[in-house]
Amino acid sequence: MLPQEIIRRKRDGQKLSAQEIAAFVAGVTSGNVSDGQVGAFAMAVFFNGMSRDEAVALTLSMRDSGDVLDWSDLPGPVTDKHSTGGVGDNVSLMLAPIVAACGAYVPMISGRGLGHTGGTLDKMDAIPGYISQPDVGRFRKTVLETGCAIIGQTADLAPADRRLYAIRDVTGTVESVPLITASILSKKLAAGLQSLVLDVKVGNGAFMEKSRDATALANSLVEVANGAGLKASALVTGMNEPLASAAGNAVEVRNAVDFLTGRFRDKRLEDVTLALAAEMLQSTGLVSSQQDGLRRAAETLAGGRAAAIFARMVVALGGPADFVEKPEKYLPKAAVEFTVKATENGFVTGIATRDIGLAVVGLGGGRTRPDDRIDHAVGITRLLPIGAEVRSGDALALVHARTDAEAAAAAAAVLSAYTIGASKPAADKTVIRRVLARG
Length: 439
Ligand code: URA
Description:
single chain, about 450 residues, alpha/beta, 4-stranded mixed β-sheet, 4-stranded antiparallel β-sheet, binds uracil
């Protein structure tokens, strides 16, 4: 099967067979298909879409392009969550230990920041000594002994996705529902999970700004996962404001540790984390209802068991033994702190969330090119939520920067991202919709 013939058929809107898709993906992995052909294929899919059967075939072929992990020796269910990405979204850091403390195993293979959104892997790299790319032996041992491990993708998992994603990134073909679906699910299937919960973000800080698009992606992810033999469900959750009151790397780790130990919890973050925990517990059969799951997750959190598991995971992956007790001793701190002050009286009625994420990137906390080094110390904390009442001169947020000039630029961006109005707005929903497999 010539790659150009497969591309032509997709270009002309025809349906590809599973064999054609497998042959093309094999060429992507081996290098027999050129970058130009991969880009042309991605563009043909971008314009003509894929049926569910084609998306399942693409997902399975990409899964099989590398190693597939096997956790059948673990004495409990194996589950994970994937978020489509947002700002101040440090849910994974709490969710993995909460679910592990309830009896499931969570081998969480996470990614780096993408565009204006933060990445779990970058956050974990803010912890000194933490090995975020361990060998498979250490990864397995950590999951077995502590119940969870948050690490980065290894070179051997879904290598076809790595090449396809890199080419999509530079050919304007990222925003395609079947390509996003196959990209996310091929990696999760290669991780050997028994169930997966998807957190599909919607709003002005998400890749999907419109509810219709987020629901289409959630449906596609759930249906294709089920078609590929992976039990999955999705929550569509709001991203019209940062989820945590912190955005950045070290500052989000600190926020997560405070959440786990009960020192401080952002309300919206707590709602989303517990809802996802309940969904994961239900998907594994460890609880029989959403209500039961919420109760178990909340009790586990309150009893300190999730904090203890997080602490053990950090140690197992090379981090400090007293990290959870003394995060301030270990997390890097930025040289400059700058308070962003409100310039009028009223209520926070809106936040341009993407601009907050871009302000963190501008501070050096994210990347503008794939090989950029990031500064884990910079970020923004004490971000006021929508609905907060402010008076002129009150703090809206605190910027952590390397220099006065970078702090001033970020502060100006944060100030213009906030809209202050005369009346208190109605609270936004955090969990908007639950998406289960049809039929
Ligand atoms: N995350 C992925 O892993 N792949 C995509 O295509 C988009 C987001």
